Amino acid sequence: MQEVAMIVMKGLALVGLLLNLVLLWTKTKKLKATTEKDDVFGLTGQEIWDQQKQPRRAISNAIIGLVANFFDTLGIGSFAPSSSAFKFAKSVDDINIPGTLNVGDTVPVCIEAFLFFGFVEMDILTLALMLIAAVAGSILGAGVVSNFDRKKVRYAMFVGLFILGIVMLCKAIGVGPFGLIGTATKLRGAKLIIAIVANFIFGALMCIGVGLYAPCMAMCALLGLNVGCAFPAMMGSCAYLMAFGNGPKFIQEGRFDYHATWMQAIFGAIGVFIAYYVVKSLDLQTLTYVVVAVCEVTAFLFLKDAIKKGSEA
């Protein structure tokens, strides 16, 4: 039963990956054929593509995709470093960052889920319900966030990144639930309900750039689960909610950077395989501190732009 469930889950990860590649390819072709000017950028589809594929931006976004998803596979998360890098490199417009993160990282995260399902012999019912809850939350959240203007996105990114940085810092220094050692591989009763509700909320917050990894790891530890259970839970949650929730929704709305998204998908996948097959041991503590610092600095940059620029580009 356990083996069959793992095969099904791995299969769904591959289906989600292929689904989003097809949708992204179709949407990209439609963009290039669009002659009407975009309400936000005042450019035709081909002009938007030409602007987004500038060599400087393409190189920056390829590096961001590879490095961020390398870290993602190690459990650090990709949303914080990616959004920070987009901001510093000025390679993606602020209004397109949430969509670019959720669509572009779908392919590498689905690959992560495929690789990590079965990493720990986790109870199938617990894992399945957590995954379903995350997808449901993402569907609710994406419908709201995809219609935000720049000002709302900037405020949302500030709140999301600030909170994520604090949670990651707690993880790095072992404060709160991150300091607990659990051994359970399944949840029942009130703990299972808490896990389902929490993952629903984490899935919704993914839409504004708040990574699910750190909060999910905290919750798993708090509820007494073996910390290894966090890997299939968090990677599976992100893969499914992005593949069947956030990804298709943001693609439908078209509010993402098309070229940067392709760079994230292609080079992000390369980063995942490098991290999974090559890296044996790494000092994640130092890397986590660096990501936390960058995350908090970038959060306040978003806040500054929201206050001073509002919805201006």
List the main descriptive attributes of the protein structure presented here.
single chain; 313 residues; mainly alpha; 13 helices; 0% strand
Strand-residue fraction?
under 5%
Radius of gyration: 18 Å
Number of DSSP-assigned strands: 0
Low-confidence stretches: none
Mean pLDDT, nearest integer?
Answer: 84
Annotation field: number of helices: 13
How far is it from the N-terminal to the C-terminal residue, by CA?
53 Å
SSE-based structural type: mainly alpha
Element-by-element helix/strand order: HHHHHHHHHHHHH
Largest sheet: none
- Overall shape: it is globular
Helix content: over 70%
- Our count of domains comes out at 1
Task: Walk me through the structure.
The chain has 313 residues and is an all-alpha fold. It has helices spanning 2-33, 45-52, 55-73, 79-89, 97-104, 106-116, 124-145, 150-173, 190-205, 213-222, 230-253, 258-277, 284-308. α1 (2-33) packs across α2, α3 runs antiparallel to α4 and α10 runs antiparallel to α11. The longest helix has 32 residues, at 2-33. The mean pLDDT is 84.
Provide a concise account of the structure shown.
The chain is mostly helical and 313 residues long. The protein is 73% helix and 0% strand. The protein is built from 13 helices and no strands.
List the helices and strands and how they pair.
Elements: H1 2-33, H2 45-52, H3 55-73, H4 79-89, H5 97-104, H6 106-116, H7 124-145, H8 150-173, H9 190-205, H10 213-222, H11 230-253, H12 258-277, H13 284-308
